[in-house]
Amino acid sequence: MSQSWSPGVTGSWLPTVAFVRSSLLAIVLVTVALLGQRPDLLVLGAPFAIITAWSAATRPRTPPELSDRLGNSTLREGDATIWRGRVTDADGTDLVSARMEPATWIDHRIDHGTVTMPVVDGRTDLDVVVRSTRWGRRLLSPVRLLATSSWGAYQCSMHTAHTSLTTLPLPAAFDTSAPRRPTDGLVGLERSTRRGEGSEFAGVRAFGTGDRIRRINWARSLRSDHLQVNATWADQDTHVALVIDAGADYGISEGIDGAASSLDTAVRAAGAIAEHSGRRGDRISLRVFGAVGSHVVPAAAGPMQLRRVLDTLSRLQPGRGATAARRGGLPPWPANGAELTVVLSPLISHEALDRAVSLGRHGLPVVVIDTLPDTVLADDDPVAALAWRIRLLERRAEIRRVQQAGIPVVRWLGPGSLDQFLRDVARRASAPRMRVG
Amino acid sequence: MITERLQRWIDTALMASAQRWAFGLAAVVMATGALLVTLVGTGDRFGWFAVLTVVLAAIAAVQAGSHTAAVVIVLVVLQWMSAVDDPTTPRSLMVAVCLLVFHSVLALMAVTPHSTTVPPDVLRRWAQRVGAVTITTAAVWALVRVLQQRDAPADPRLTLLALLAAGLGVVLLLRRTIGDIDDG
Question: Are B114 and B16 in contact (CB under 8 A)?
Answer without folding.
Answer: yes
